[in-house]
Write a structure and sequence with these properties.
By secondary structure, the protein is an alpha+beta fold. It folds into 2 domains: about 5-175, Regulatory protein AraC (Jelly Rolls), CATH 2.60.120.280; about 185-285, Homeodomain-like (Arc Repressor Mutant, subunit A, Orthogonal Bundle). The protein is about 40% helix and about 15% strand. Strands 1, 2, 3, 4, 5, 6, 7, 8 and 9 form a 9-stranded antiparallel β-sheet that branches. A hairpin with a 2-residue loop joins strand 4 and strand 5.
Length: about 300
């Protein structure tokens, strides 16, 4: 697939809730559709298969594929979604949302069916590597489309490319090998960590933000700086914690300032880093000396587990 030709056209984007019982009968769509299941669920029938779609799933529907949606007993279907073309052309503005089967279309309507240019397999229903990040990106597209402020078309293209990266980079196996990522990218990532160490940062978050395969990101970061991304993040937070502990801030103020969920996760992190508790460190290093960490914890700092596919 030639990614250089991509110029997404966002046709429709909406956060909607469908209450049961409901049925969206057999139909095709002219374009592509991405749906994030933000709550509840539905039954999707497509290509002779039935899917029970649940919260956190992504539904990816291609042009000219017959499908239907049915409600699950007692379950609403919360579905931020977007209809789009992968490439903007002179027909993009004329295409609309279709609710017919292909056999019901007129010849003129059949000309509106977008060509599917994706040459690798993408599951109809999948769970993204980071559902929360995928959701946030999609909601930004929806908000931009809703507000339609000046230059919103450019911004929606940018955000859609980010969403498509999250999908394509996972399923396009022809692009899995890592070339050397530009040094500037790694410097930008390092600077981002330096300025946002109080936030929840994971490989998935960085990969999505900087449009880099997470495995390539990890390998290239370690190659350039001699340390893994998470170890570097931990080292930054540890050094900041040590500096704060030599000052007048209380330990409660310190863990909150560093973005920890509670004092227990902060104490566990600190002890893993240097072998002593924050209180013990403060007693022995009150003069301002900084102890060297005994090692680094490779897990994300937050007590919340990273999302997996």
């Amino acid at each position: 697939m030639d990614y250089n030709i991509l110029s997404p056209y966002v046709r429709f984007a909406l956060y909607s809730v469908i209450e049961p019982p409901f049925t969206v009968g057999w139909r095709i769509i002219f374009d592509y559709e991405l749906i994030f299941v933000d709550g509840g669920g539905c039954r999707l029938t497509i290509n002779g298969k039935e899917y029970l779609c649940k919260k956190g799933d992504v539904i990816f529907i291609k042009p000219n594929v017959e499908h239907r949606f049915d409600s699950l007993p007692g379950s609403s279907f919360i579905q931020p979604h977007v209809h789009f073309d992968l490439c903007t052309d002179n027909k993009s503005e004329s295409v609309y949302i279709c609710y017919k089967t292909y056999s019901e279309l007129t010849e003129r309507e059949r000309e509106l069916v977008r060509k599917d240019i994706i040459d690798f397999d993408i599951p109809t229903v999948f769970t993204p590597e980071s559902p929360s990040y995928f959701r946030a990106q999609l909601l930004e597209v929806i908000e931009l489309f809703k507000r339609r402020e000046p230059f919103y078309q450019l911004l929606t293209k940018q955000k859609m490319l980010g969403l498509l990266y999250l999908v394509f980079s996972h399923f396009d196996k022809s692009k899995k090998t890592c070339g050397a990522a530009p040094s500037l990218d790694m410097l930008n990532i390092k600077s981002y960590i330096d300025g946002n160490y109080t936030q929840r940062i994971t490989l998935n978050h960085l990969a999505g933000r900087f449009y880099i395969n997470k495995y390539c990101l990890e390998a290239e970061f370690k190659k350039q700086f001699g340390i893994t991304v998470i170890k570097y993040l931990n080292s930054v937070r540890f050094e900041k914690a040590c500096a704060m502990l030599t000052g007048d801030m209380s330990i409660s103020e310190i863990y909150e300032a560093l973005g920890f969920d509670n004092i227990y996760s902060f104490s566990r992190f600190f002890k893993n880093m240097c072998g002593s508790s924050p209180t013990a460190y403060r007693k022995t290093h009150g003069s301002g000396a900084i102890v060297k960490a005994k090692g680094f914890d490779d897990e994300p700092i937050s007590a919340e587990a990273d999302d997996t596919i």
